[in-house]
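Sequence in, structure out. Go.
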Amino acid sequence: MKFAEMTFPELRAVSRDRCVVVAPIAACEQHSLHLTTITDTVLVTGVADAVERLVPDVALQLPTQWFGASHHHLRFGATLSARVETHIEMLIDLVEPLLEDGHQRILILNGHGGNIDTMQTALRRLQPKWKNRILSAGSYWDIAAPELAALADGPRKVMGHACEFETSMMMALRADLVRVDQIRDDPERDDPILRGLYLAEDMRQRTDHGAVGYPTRASADKGRKLIDAAARRVAEVIRTLLARPLPT
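Output:
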């Protein structure tokens, strides 16, 4: 079910207890030399669309929220960004009317790393008031981490930025938005001694040209497999959330 393609009587008829509201969130920001600024939005929408096709009777897919928390990209320019507090409030305002309308289960499906803290904080702020509802959030690449890692050819087996994963998925979904002649690898400057430590650095400090990973290993075929793997895992999560008793 797609919220944006339904009338209010149709939406009113949706069982509040037998569906999971899927709220894709993303960003509009620089994606290195070869991907366009709308990449995160295209990708999470592509995954959400595939999820909806797998479980159309129990997933209520919202339109993708493209405005993300991307201040760490601003030094490159070509980035639209909400302040952290603004983004937290945006997500609360996105979710709370659905809770007030009686929906029991929410899944924020994230497509941008800068949104992880804000979506978690938004749900933490909502939880005391809505403690009898299931409030969940996750990035599609974390939900399907082992499956995606198995498809990676490059040395980086987790999601980066304008990386092997993202470039492959864009080749599958919107090849017209990939500047193939501009693809360059940009390995992250990783100090193994500092693993487990959060460093407050922006993308200009972390990268040479705004990417993290090995996009030269990308292909459209791999992108289709990545999308399918992510969608199947998210669909599994939705079925599990539906079977999970509401908290008391």
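Check: The chain has one domain: 3-243. The first strand starts at residue 20 and ends at 25.
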